[in-house]
Amino acid sequence: MESPKSYQNDFPYDHVEVNSLVLVKMLKHWNDNYPTPVNGQLLGLDVGSKLEVTNCFPYPQKKDIHNTLSKDRYLNNLSEKELEDKADEEFVKYQEKMMGFLHDVNVDSFSVGWYQTINFGELHAKEIIDNLVVYQETVTKAVMIGFHPITNSDKLSLKAYRIGPELLAIYSEGQDDPKKYNQLRGSQILIEVPIIIKNSLLIDACLREHFSPFVSQNLSFFDVFDTDKHEIEYKLNFLLQSLDALTENQEKFVRYQRDYTRQQQQQKQFTERRRLENEQRKLRGEPLIPLDLDIPIFKKLGYPSQLPTFILSQECASHVDDINRLSFENLSRLALQYNP
After folding, report:
1. Distance of alpha carbon 40 from alpha carbon 20, whole angstroms
2. How far is 18 from 197, CA to CA, in rounded Å?
3. Where is the MPN domain (predicted)?
């Protein structure tokens, strides 16, 4: 197994520099498909201590590909499973064609990750983590850029993430033993990479026009709290959902421990009864009864993976940090109002 340090050295960059053109394309992709979540390919190159994201292209919606294939009269005889496989095949072909077209016109065509719209409350979803692990194993410098375009302010929520080297090392060994996650901390799951926006003044102007079509001239002081009100409610709602899911996951582990303890007791009692019975049969000169390991009490119980627990714990911590930040900002405004 490679050490965590070796995985860390696979990303020797201080930050990710995103061209403003990429943000405009991402926003347009989202706007054209709202409210459906979107994702796409990030393209760029590494320059010195930074990873530059210079271009991108959108991924098509798989449901649209599936619908198109289902209407093809030459594919009417395919089963639903075969149609899904065909849609996946067309999805891959689309990416390859796009990369080829960009290469032909001398545009940066090196894959450096992908982007997707995301509620940051769902950032630690198992599917996202699995996808990022697979991506990093293929493209070692890959990043996932998540953005949340629906906001009450004129700022776009944009963050870049990579899988932590500790978790990547565990994945590289396979997941046959869930106990490997026991020594993993929540902060080692996802690592945020600093982002710098190139031509940030231009994208700032674009975002202000996009999110602020007009500016009211008669705002009261307490109107400044309205921009954070819904976001705080949003974060609190996600926190409650994450806590419920975490509680349910912990209850599953408690049930496993209880079932495991009961099974061990049953095995011990059964083995002792069989031993005593065989001693009696031996005294009577009768053949001994072998210990049958195929009965239910000797079947190994599935050990629940602790990765979901770490993921949910990190989600809760992230929500709490966001709520604290928003609350601190509002309290600071109150302090400025009443303590000039």
Report:
1. 16
2. 5
3. 16-167
Cα–Cα distances (Å) from 151 to 32, 119, 148, in that order, read 17, 11, 7
Q: What is the pLDDT of residue 4?
A: 40
Strands (DSSP E) contained in the chain are: 15-19, 39-47, 50-58, 110-117, 143-148, 157-163, 190-193, 195-198
Both ends of the chain: CA-CA distance in Å? 60
Among candidate residues 212, 213, 195, the one with its CA nearest the CA of residue 20: 195
Query: Six-digit token pair at 126?
Result: 């198992």
Q: What is the C-alpha separation between 140 and 110, in angstroms, rounded?
A: 12
Distance in angstroms (rounded) separating the CA atoms of residues 43 and 62: 21
Can you read off the two tokens belonging to residue 285? 């000169």
Q: What is the mean pLDDT of the chain?
A: 76
How far apart, in whole angstroms, are the C-alpha atoms of residue 184 and residue 140?
Answer: 21
Measured CA distances, 290 to 232, 267, 271, 277, 295 (Å)? 64, 14, 10, 11, 12
Q: How far apart are CA 68 and CA 239, in angstroms?
A: 39
Q: 110-137 as b/e, with b when 16 or more CB fall inside 10 Å?
A: bbbbbbbbbebbebbeeebbebbbebbe
* Tokens read off for 65: 């590909």
DSSP assignment string, 77-94: T--HHHHHHHHHHHHHHH
Could you give the CA distance from residue 72 to residue 68 in angstroms, rounded to a whole number? 7
Rounded to an integer, what distance in angstroms lies between the CA atom of residue 146 and that of residue 113?
11
**Hey, how many other C-beta atoms are within 10 angstroms of the C-beta on 163?**
26
pLDDT greater than 70 at residue 239: yes
| Distance in angstroms (rounded) separating the CA atoms of residues 46 and 52 | 6
Q: Burial level of 21, CB count in 10 A (0-12/13-18/19+)? A: middle
Tokens in use for 206?
């674009």
